[in-house]
Design brief:
This protein is mainly β. Helix content is 0%, strand content 55%. The strands form three sheets. Strands 9, 10, 11, 12, 13, 14 and 15 form a seven-stranded antiparallel sheet that branches.
């Protein structure tokens, strides 16, 4: 299972809620958190009882942002939770993703100036760096902007603020296509907290 984004610094925290739907066997679980450059920040192990559930909190005050991988001896279901001790930064959740893809799609983008920012969160669990292209398409299907090219380190991650792609007025609607030389997992966060709002929510990127 892959969590495309994790916060491990300052007032931020990352947690997991995991359930073992195997009613006959316990599940041995290893959670490994990496920074953006692919360096291991922390490894935690847990045992979940048959048919049981647990919550795991990664240690705070580490070296910034990254992503996390969950490996278990039996199939799990779960969710990742990102939060902060600051009341102006609401918690949001991310699905734990089961598969990786070289092509990803996001069905909605909003970077309306003064209202929203959209943050593309991508992780590369592989052993080779990934060359990535991000292409925005407007609601009429055209591609008015040049693709954004970037590189993600082996076992690393990145966060791309899509406000940087658009015009001064922002991008109100449209979709996103992402191609990569290595399979990725991704999540798009819509965030209004930088503009006085209190909304943080998003969706997992899917393969077309």
């Amino acid at each position: 299972l892959y969590l495309p984004y994790a916060q491990l610094h300052g007032d931020a925290w990352t947690g997991f809620a995991l359930s073992n739907h195997d009613g006959s066997s316990s599940s041995s679980v290893t959670i490994t958190a990496y920074d953006k450059q692919g360096t291991v920040l922390e490894t935690k192990t847990e045992t979940i009882a048959p048919g049981g559930q647990t919550t795991v909190l990664l240690s705070p005050n580490q070296a910034g942002e990254g992503w996390a991988k969950v490996v278990a001896s039996s199939p799990l279901q779960g969710v990742g939770l990102i939060g902060s001790t600051q009341t102006d930064k609401p918690m949001f959740d991310l699905d734990l993703q089961t598969s990786l893809h070289k092509t990803l799609r996001v069905s909605h983008v909003d970077t309306t100036a003064g209202q929203w920012q959209s943050l593309a969160m991508l992780c590369n669990p592989g052993s080779s760096s990934a060359a990535v292209n991000i292409l925005y398409k407007a609601q009429n299907g055209t591609a008015p902007l040049a693709p954004k090219a970037l590189t993600i380190a082996a076992q690393g991650s990145t966060v791309v603020n899509l406000n940087e792609l658009g015009t001064p007025s922002g991008l109100a609607g449209g979709s996103l296509g992402i191609t990569s030389t290595q399979p990725l997992a991704g999540f798009l966060l819509y965030d209004s907290t930088g503009y006085g709002g209190n909304n943080r929510a998003g969706l997992s990127m899917t393969s077309p």
